[in-house]
Structures are given as C-alpha cells and as structure tokens.
Description:
Layout: H1 19-28, H2 34-37, H3 39-44, H4 56-60, H5 70-77, H6 83-108, H7 119-132, H8 136-149
Helix pairs in contact: 6-7, 6-8
Domain Acyl-CoA dehydrogenase/oxidase C-terminal: 75-146
Domain FAS1-like dehydratase: 5-64
Protein name: Acyl-CoA dehydrogenase/oxidase C-terminal domain-containing protein
Amino acid sequence: xxxxxxxxxxxxxxxxxxxxxxxxxxxxxxxxxxxxxxxxxxxxxxxxxxxxxxxxxxxxxxxxxxxxxxxxxxxxxxxxxxxxxxxxxxxxxxxxxxxxxxxxxxxxxxxxxxxxxxxxxxxxxxxxxxxxxxxxxxxxxxxxxxxxxxxx
Length: 152
C-alpha cells in the first residue's frame, strides 16, 4: 500500500511529547532514572521538568514523508481522520522495537536473557506495551476497514 514510500527521507518536525510517552519509553528500554519518570525530580532539576532518555529523540523523530503525513494530518484534520495512520504506527513501532531488542538478545546469546543485562526485561516491557495499547490485530482491522471504506 505504501511501498512507493520505501527509501524516501522524511523532513524533520517539532514534536510535542506527553510525559507519559517518555515514561513508557524509559520503562521499555529499562532505564528508570528519576529524571525521566518522576515529576518531582524533574521539577527540581536544572531543566525544571522531566527530560527524555538520550535515545528517545532518535526513536521519535519521524518527520513526515511525502504521501504519509501523520503529524500534519493529526494537526490539520484531527485524530479521527488520521485513524488508519495512527493504527499503522501502533503496529509498526512496537514491532520494530521488539525486533531490535530480540536481535540484541541474539547477539548476546544466553547472557542476553540473563539478569546481567536489561534486554529480557525490555523485551517483556515492549511486548506488554503491544497488548496494553490494543492487540495488533485490532489495529490491523482498523486499517483494513479504513482502506475498504475508500472503495465502497
């Protein structure tokens, strides 16, 4: 459906991030430093608020690709109209994160699932997120229904 977008580079956009998303991200990578998750610590810090882990911007900075303008679409027509794109991201992003964590575990071998490294816990957290945010099949059904509506 969006195969023509493969290989295209996105333009950078400024993202407003909910603190809850930063907390979820910190939990999923196993980094629960108080500056990321505790409001009081954030207020007392030199930043005056919570900050995101250094890897967060690399994950969240998606920009917009011509033909797939989710941030713009959400801002201009609202979340209801961007329903299919939101559902796509809710399937793709956690699956990509799980794949990266799984490959990391593979690279570390048996040590990757030991308590010496946070990878097994990170994998469990991201897998739980995939269910907590709604099972993938629910999001896939949403995309399918939105696509079928175009042809009815």
